[in-house]
Design a protein that fits this description.
Chain lengths: 143, 143
DNA sequence: TATTGTTATACTCTATAACTATA
DNA sequence: TATAGTTATAGAGTATAACAATA
């Protein structure tokens, strides 16, 4: 039978809650980055998903994005019209269309990522010592 | 003339980038929390914005949500139909409708917040000592 | 006259179902 | 016959413009 996960140690709960608050309060900056470029959240997600060298079938993208393939067609079409993605037929199976990021798409993705990575003022206000400690610990995450 | 902000110390950039990655990789959990309850992202934003005791005019909400008042009307109407919000006329200015969170709305907001606050596995995997250090430093943010 | 919220309308995004072309 | 992607269609969410009630 499905069971709930045991409660985390209080240290984990406290640390995560604080991280979460900071991350949420910086959400409007990310929204602004998109609005400034006339990009939708869908566009952004696609820019993060797609790759310049590895093309991906529409069906794969639909599954990853949790949407219907017909909608993935729409989203990719929008991106293609903006010049940020391109379609190419698969060599072995001509039913499949592979979707690639264009150079222009990679450029805007990089710009976006750079803006997302700019630390908010409230983080910059910490001491360099605290920031270094933070980075040292967080570097262990997912390792 | 408008100028770009000076670059942050490398410690800030590193710490923030790592925090940001964790936030992004935990986004699907929050999406799942909403889907499980049949809530839209709009619903969630409204649940965070509204209050049981302090009613807010539609126009205020529209400004905070960055949308048109006609859309705020739509969003609040949806929430009202779900029983999570209620409208009441302002006593002094009968043009104004104040929007309040209902008890039921507060309950689902609290559930949601509790789920959001459950630390992801990759955070729980850190040592209690590291987590305590993390919490100690992050508690200074925004102070 | 000006302001608040709603309604009328049109446009975008989304899913379902039907279709085309390959396999 | 089955599968990948598209197109046709309809429903949800959004903004603009017109409107009603109140100030």
């Amino acid at each position: 039978m499905p069971r709930k996960k045991s409660s985390p140690p209080p240290e984990a709960a406290a640390a995560w809650r604080l991280m979460f608050e900071v991350l949420m309060s910086s959400g409007h900056r990310r929204t602004a980055s998109l609005v400034r470029r006339g990009l939708t959240p869908n566009d952004a997600r696609a820019l993060w998903t797609l790759d310049v060298d590895d093309g991906r079938p529409i069906g794969d993208l639909a599954r990853e994005w949790g949407c219907d393939p017909s909608n993935a067609t729409f989203i990719v079409g929008r991106l293609e019209k903006s010049g940020f993605a391109r379609r190419a037929s698969h060599a072995d199976d001509k039913r499949v269309k592979l979707v690639f990021l264009t150079k222009s798409g990679a450029a805007v993705r990089d710009e976006l990522r750079d803006e997302y990575h700019e630390p908010p003022d409230e983080i910059r206000a910490l001491t360099r010592k605290d920031l270094a400690t933070l980075a040292r610990i967080l570097a262990k995450v997912g390792k």
